[in-house]
Amino acid sequence: MEFQTPLRRATLIRRYKRFLADMELDGQTITAHCANPGSMLGMADPGMTCWIEGNDDPNRKLRWSWKLVETPGEGRAVVDTSLANRVVAEALRGGFLNAGDFRAEVKMGQSSRVDFVLGDGTLLEVKSVTLARNGWAEFPDSVTQRGTRHLHDLTEAARQGRGAMMLYLLARDDVGRVRIAGDIDPAYAAAFDDARANGVRMIALGTRITRQGVQATGPVPLDDGPQSGVSRR
User: Fold this and answer.
1) What is the pLDDT of residues 37-76, one digit of tens each?
2) Considering the entire predicted model, what is its pTM?
3) Is-contact 139 129, C-beta < 8 A?
4) What domains sit in the chain, N to C, each tagged with a CATH number?
């Protein structure tokens, strides 16, 4: 997945109202769209170096979009969570999971959609993992009722005999393994354990992050052992 236009370097002043961020760019203060509904713990501290993408679309309220941030671990993390599905779709087209003729954004149940349905009918949901603590990337970084609902939907599908899979995309490059942050959202951790026990397959996929784009690299370790719902630090 390549960015449409070259990214520009900026310095974060503050993130606010969840989806807005003020930054210093070439000596001026600009406001960028922040496409990330999470807490962005450790990724939104004033003074952090950011990479933003410009656009000239007159229909967009904000000219700039926040895409990447340089992390304290001398790496980069993906801020824009909407990029995760694009990265995974590219990997699927390249043969990952033997996806075949997959479909995206397919209705599941009365009020949900699943990110992908693979050629064999397997349901695939994707989560972008950006929090890092003590050498681990962790999900979620805040309470996520929506994420818990997705796990319940996958669990129900698995109980009915359908293939179901949760993919955690490691959207930062300064750590190489993923686990569940049960201390942040115990309900999500419990739903994770229940889903796994009922046959939902749990996998994690690493990425290579540059100023030009984000590409999937291959599987990374996922701590999905017993009682994974409790983040072990």
Assistant:
1) 999 999 999 999 999 999 888 888 899 999 999 998 789 9
2) 0.93
3) yes
4) 8-78 (2.40.50.580), 83-219 (3.40.1350.60)
